[in-house]
Write a structure and sequence with these properties.
CATH topology of the largest domain: Aminoglycoside 3'-phosphotransferase, Chain: A, domain 2
Number of domains: 2
Shape: globular
Radius of gyration: 20 Å
Largest sheet: 5 strands, antiparallel
CATH superfamily of the largest domain: Aminoglycoside phosphotransferase (APH), C-terminal lobe
CATH architecture of the largest domain: Alpha-Beta Complex
Strand content: 5-15%
Length: 319
């Protein structure tokens, strides 16, 4: 929307703002704007076309998060008919602007917050199933490889999908944010972290969110930092497991997550010409290659490194 349209929509919902700033556009289609009520007060408006979805899930989870002392934005107003949610403005300081290699304590706080989310009592949450997980992964093949890169089908990806489903079934399933990464973690002046964009919360394998925060799409973490964060997570979640066990949860959750996101971001470009996350694809693909076990998938790793990655870089260069 144009800023004038944003101000008009805000006014229809009872907020006469003097200025509107564009914050972000999500893959889900949600649009976020900062509304300046005056020179000292601001709020955030989230808009989602009512024909494309609603905010019911977000409101439901937000209420239970706050009851469980999980930091998240306060909901000020909900107007389902116009697709608007007005919420507390948590500021601009997300962890995406902080290199956690230099701030290990913030990474520890993040995994502690994740453990609180995973173990919170939130009723009426859908559970992921094998069909959904498989369909998400399959988009890497059908959309990213075949449509976006115009490459031949990679048969080993189907074998990989079956292995992922097996390994995910073997790990604990708890509340899953489904996009628990630095972009969705906000930092306040007291160095406390709040979580946002949790409308896709579901019951799922713990490794998916672990990978979201520990297998970063933008910068690599040192092995020592990752191991330390996993050790802290084990203390917080209070499970009788070792670091190697949790790394395997993270490995297979990360493989599923990265395959899904390669497909999702490619599809957004193909269908809507949205290029805003294409630049992240090489790191996401590199992370996937790194996560794949050498003993079982060396041939696939070599294929992705020698054929898929060069073609991806060529496509991005042509933009």
């Amino acid at each position: 929307m144009k800023k004038e349209e944003v101000l008009e929509l805000a006014k229809k919902n009872g907020f006469d703002a003097i200025k509107a700033d564009v914050l972000k556009l999500e893959a889900s289609g949600r649009e976020y704007y900062r509304l300046h009520i005056d020179n000292h007060k601001s709020i955030v408006m989230c808009y989602l076309n009512p024909y494309k979805g609603d905010h019911k899930k977000f409101i439901h989870v937000a209420n239970f998060f706050r009851n469980s002392n999980i930091n998240c934005p306060e909901i000020i107003l909900v107007e389902q008919k116009t697709g608007v949610v007005i919420q507390q403005d948590l500021g601009d300081d997300s962890l995406i602007d902080i290199n956690l290699n230099d701030n290990p304590e913030l990474l520890k706080k993040s995994v502690k917050l994740l453990s609180q989310i995973q173990t919170a009592h939130i009723p009426q949450i859908n559970k992921l199933d094998d069909e959904s997980l498989a369909m998400q992964m399959e988009t890497m093949q059908s959309v990213f490889v075949e449509k976006y890169l115009s490459l031949k089908k990679i048969e080993e990806l189907k074998i990989l999908q079956s292995q992922v489903l097996l390994r995910l079934s073997e790990q604990p399933w708890m509340n899953c944010h489904f996009d628990f990464e630095r972009r969705n973690l906000m930092l306040d002046s007291n160095q406390e972290i709040s979580v946002i964009d949790f409308q896709d919360l579901c019951i799922g394998p713990v490794g998916i969110d672990l990978a979201g925060i520990l297998v970063d799409h933008y910068i690599p973490y040192s092995n020592d930092l990752s191991s330390s964060a996993i050790e802290h997570y084990i203390k917080c979640i209070q499970l009788d497991v070792g670091v190697e066990d949790v790394f395997e949860w993270l490995r297979w959750g990360g493989i599923q997550r990265n395959m899904r996101i390669l497909g999702t971001l490619s599809n957004l470009y193909i269908q809507d010409n949205r290029t805003f996350r294409l630049k992240d694809l090489p790191r996401i693909l590199e992370n996937l290659i790194t996560l794949l076990p050498n003993d079982e998938f060396m041939s696939l790793k070599e294929n992705l490194s020698s054929i898929v990655m060069p073609k991806l870089l060529l496509e991005l260069k042509a933009l």
